[in-house]
Write a structure and sequence with these properties.
Blueprint lengths: L1 H6 L1 E5 L4 E3 L7 E7 L2 E6 L6 E7 L4 E2 L1 H6 L6 E4 L3 E7 H10 L1 H27 L2 H13 L12 H7 L4 H13 L3 E4 L2 E5 L1 H23 L1
Antiparallel strand pairs: 1-8, 2-7, 3-6, 3-8, 4-5, 4-7, 9-10
Helix pairs in contact: 3-4, 5-8, 6-7
C-alpha cells in the first residue's frame, strides 16, 4: 500500500472547472481528497444535464471505465475547489491484480454506486418531482457534517433529480412555507427531517393510488 501512495500524484482543480471528460475517463482514475465533484451525463442537443453522482472525500471516478476499459460518456466537474489523487488507469489495474484487499474494497464501492444509480433510475420512473426532491434531501441531510448538498444552488439540486431550477424553486418555497426547510441565499440551510419524512411517505402513497386503481 505504501508503494501505491507514493505513485499517486496530487492535483488541484478550481471550482467550476471540468476535471474529466469522456476521453480522459479511460486514461486516469482519481480519488477525491477534498471538495465535491459532480459526474454528469449531458444532452448535447438541448444542454440538459442529469447528475449521476455527487462525490465527496473518499470517492473515486471514473469507476465504470476502470472496470471495462471503455470511454464513459460523462463529464466530471469541480463543485468546490477540489483536491484529488490521480494515477494512470493501467497502474490502478495492476494494483487490483496484486492486492486482494484493494480489489475487495473496489467491488464494495462499485456495488454501492450501482445501488445509487438504480435508485435514481427507479425514482425517475416511478415518482414525481416533489417526491424525488424529498428523497434527495432525506438522503443527504440525515448524515450531518457529511451532507454533500450544503450550499448547493437550486439548479444543482434540479440536476440531481432530473428536473429544472424553476420547478425545484417552487417546491422548496412550498416546503419553506410548510416549515420543512429553511433557505439561505436560495440554498437549503436546514431540514425538519420528521416533517420531510412524513411528506415523502405521503408522496409515495399518492403515487401508488393510480397503479392500485389500474390493478383492479
Amino acid at each position: 500500500m505504501h508503494s501505491i501512495v507514493q505513485s499517486l500524484t496530487e492535483e488541484w482543480h478550481a471550482r467550476g472547472k471540468q476535471i474529466m471528460g469522456p476521453a480522459d475517463s479511460v486514461a486516469t482514475f482519481r480519488l477525491v481528497l477534498q471538495g465535491r465533484v459532480k459526474v454528469v451525463r449531458s444532452n448535447s442537443h438541448d444542454g440538459r444535464e442529469l447528475t449521476l453522482w455527487l462525490l465527496g472525500p473518499g470517492d473515486g471516478f471514473d469507476i465504470v471505465s476502470l472496470l471495462d476499459g471503455a470511454p464513459h460518456a460523462v463529464t466530471a466537474w469541480a463543485v468546490d475547489e477540489v483536491r484529488t489523487l490521480v494515477a494512470p488507469m493501467a497502474l490502478w489495474r495492476e494494483w487490483f491484480e496484486q492486492s486482494p484487499a484493494l480489489r475487495l474494497a473496489a467491488h464494495r464501492y462499485v456495488a454501492r454506486k450501482l445501488r445509487e444509480i438504480t435508485d435514481l433510475a427507479g425514482e425517475l420512473a416511478l415518482y414525481d418531482t416533489s417526491a424525488r426532491l424529498a428523497h434527495l434531501l432525506l438522503r443527504h441531510f440525515d448524515v450531518g457534517e457529511g451532507n454533500l448538498l450544503r450550499d448547493l444552488p437550486q439548479r444543482e439540486l434540479a440536476s440531481l433529480i432530473g428536473s429544472v431550477r424553476i420547478v425545484v424553486s417552487r417546491l422548496l418555497s412550498q416546503m419553506r412555507r410548510q416549515g420543512i426547510v429553511q433557505l439561505r441565499g436560495g440554498a437549503v440551510h436546514s431540514v425538519d427531517l420528521k416533517r420531510l419524512l412524513a411528506k415523502a411517505d405521503s408522496e409515495i402513497a399518492h403515487a401508488a393510488i393510480p397503479r392500485q386503481k389500474v390493478a383492479r
